[in-house]
Description:
The complex is a heterodimer. Chain A is mainly alpha-helical. Chain A has a single domain, classed as ABC transporter involved in vitamin B12 uptake, BtuC. Chain A has 11 helices and 4 strands, in the order H-H-H-H-E-E-E-H-H-H-H-E-H-H-H. In chain A, strands 1-4 form a two-stranded antiparallel ribbon. In chain A, helix 1 packs across helix 9 and helix 9 (216-231) packs across helix 10. Chain A starts with a helix and ends in an 18-residue tail after the last helix. Chain B has a domain at 2-233. In chain B, 66% of the residues lie in helices and 0% in strands. Chain B has helices at 2-31, 39-54, 75-97, 102-122, 124-127, 147-174, 176-186, 188-193, 198-224, 234-247, 252-268, 276-284, 288-307. Chains A and B meet through helix 4, helix 9 and helix 11 of A and helix 4, helix 10 and helix 13 of B.
Amino acid sequence: MDYFLQTIVYGLATGAVISVAAVGLTLSFGVTGFINFSYGEILTVAAYTTYALTQAGMALPLAALIAIFMGGVVTFLVARGFFEPLRDRGPLALLITGVGVAFVIQSLVQMAFGGSPKPFPLPLMTPWQIGEVYIPKLQVIILVLAIVCMIAVHALLRYTLMGRTMRAAASNDALAKLSGLNTRRIIGGTWLVSGLIAGLGGVLLASSQGNMSPTLGFNFLLVVFAAAMLGGIGQPYGAMLGALVIGLGIEFGAAYVSADYSQALAFGVLIVVLLVRPSGFLGKPSLATAGGAS
Amino acid sequence: MTGWLLFGAFVLTNALIYGILALGLNTQYGLAGQANFGFVALFAAGAFATTLAVLPPPDSPEYVGTYEIGFGLPWGAALLVAAATAGGVALLMGLVCLRLGGHYLAMVTFAMAQVFASFLANEEWITKGQFGISPVPQPLRDQVDEASTYIYLYLGLAAVVTLVAYILAERAGRSPFGRVLRGIREDEVAARTLGKAAGAFKLKAFVLGGVLAGLAGAVWVGSIGAVHVGQFIPVVTFNVWLAVLLGGVGNNRGVLLGALLLVLIRESTRFLEGVPFLADLAASNASFLPSLRYVIIGLALILVVRFAPQGVLPERLRKRVQPDLTADESAPVEPVQVKA
Lengths: 294, 340
């Protein structure tokens, strides 16, 4: 029983990390309509930025903030420079370009920092103990940060002008343009937000794993994508739900089935979802109606 | 001088292996329009099937005591086993994935290849996991004494298999079967309206692509006489994509040329060690030059898609109408001129 509860604790934390990353991915999909294959690399960039800044003597929270900001800026620049010129060229051109960008960023990180794993600069924290179940402080912090991030995304979509225009562009790009919205700016803003969330996801991922390598984000991309798909791609609240399921699935799979196949299990879920219910858990509401009708 | 010749033969053999892979992907994507991002799984299936087929069984005198499974088949049979196994994996992959389109097909095939890779890495009784299997008997190795002569002989063998693969791909493309596939690629609804079972056609093209990838796997194992799960990483898939895009989607000669260009680009990065400034950096970081190679591959993917989407040798269609394969599907198509 304690083992079961312990697995739930880890599953929730893993799910929290995935949910942050999945919301960023699904947000950019909702507005731009394509899957950014280089999304994982933004997580890597943020993790390594945090590492480099703390090595230079900066305090961890400040370094993490700058890293998150870096994630947003890099995503914005990549999208403006590489994705937007190909917007009307069909899915394959964008997918392949995304793969190319992923290779370039991942290899540049490896050239700068080397291929061997680097420790994520975390202070030592003793876990809380409730009965026989250990609740690590780190996992609680991750969970709290993830929830804060979710609330922020909700508020952005629901209450701000930018969020409303994003939802408008997601639901009907042409109509949004006709209504006088500057869709180029909206899309740019979406990339920025998606990148900021990816940055947070990268910091959380590296801290939950304790170390990082240049393939950190690339290896995580499919897990994130599985969560986004499971919830219904383009739908932020679905992504949160999907992430929770995938996170618990990975930890329970590792604990009770086979640790070797825990990732494969997540991809198996992805494949089954796509075949059985391609619209995911939440067929509606999409990004267009996220945050309630308004 | 002989050093350079040997290096040239080695590079050409690699180009031929990538050429067979590119023919396979070109059948799946160029002909049938199915973007497979998990192509490396089919290559791996062919490679491991070949290994199991040609390894001597434990009770034979040639057995060297490294591996428990081995059928001791001749290489000719091993090629068939590789083709059948990879074709079978492609059939499974296609049955599961082909009803999806665009992004989803790409992501799911990518995911399936990852599942297959973790299967290979974990099922050590088949693959010996991180240890790999070595040595694997090479074809006709006992016919020549010199290791260097064998490299030339092997280049010839690889060329023969490539020719067979080319004829297979070309015949499929030029037959009525190929014309239907192009029709489905351009407008699936129109093809269905004409009574063509689009799903079955796509699946057959997918399996044929798998068969070619299986042959490539066999040629790969024979060329180095060893196999290891680490050889079949996602990067391989995108190398093949680069070869197809560079050469010209839909053109079999083009993709062979693309494979040669790909291998030349990759090998030319070896000479970067000679650049003084880079040599200093490489000395301090062992992964510097291999990473630089991936940067170049990544940049090539970006640039080809952006500036030369038709590749070096674009697909030649018999009609005068040359549809822009890269264009948005919703864009209006020019009316076909019918000759009276």
